[in-house]
Amino acid sequence: MTQTTTRPPARLVWQARLMNAVNVPMRVILGLPFTTPLSSQLMLLYLTGRKTGKSYVQPVSFVEDGQTMLTPGGGRWKLNLRDGECVRARLRGREVRLRPELVKDAAEVDRLLRLMASKNSRITSFAPVAGPDGQIDRQRVDNAVRFGFAIVRWHFDCPPIKLS
Fold it and tell me: CATH assignment of 10-155, given 3.30.420.10, 2.30.110.10, 1.10.3720.10, 3.40.50.720?
């Protein structure tokens, strides 16, 4: 049986443009050296472009899951992550290093999205997986994963940042 896939809806393109504009003040607020109300669900990642080598700062949402954190990885920023390669981040006003694990298995992505949504219902607004009823739709999860969506599981087992 052949299953067709569809590209993400045009609203996601609009949403990406909106997020680019919103990210400008978010970088300033999340970059402060103390905890803010926004830093309970958002953190800053300091990334290096895989092709250009250009450094940039990306605000991302997260949900805590035991000894790890989970982030919906729908944007292109996640393409600069390498499993096992630590990334500098600002989490609750502090500099930390996190090791990303890209979760790309559709069944596990579905499970993690449901877990994330139970802790933060706004998560589905960052991921193209909600059906008309606002609930996570497995077919949409499968389609999103086919087009590159993943969950980033962040581990805290990196060596600390060395200050020179």
Answer: 2.30.110.10
DSSP 112-130: HHHHHHHH-GGGGGSSTTB
| Domain extents in the chain | 10-155
Max CA distance (Å), the chain: 59
Q: What tens digit of pLDDT does each residue of 127-161 get?
A: 778 887 778 999 999 999 999 999 999 999 998 76
Tokens found for residue 41: 């669900």
Is this model's pTM higher than 0.85 or not?
no
| Nearest alpha carbon to residue 74 among 126, 4, 139 | 126
| pLDDT tens digit sequence for 71-83 | 998 888 999 998 7
Give CA–CA dist 101/104, Å, rounded: 10
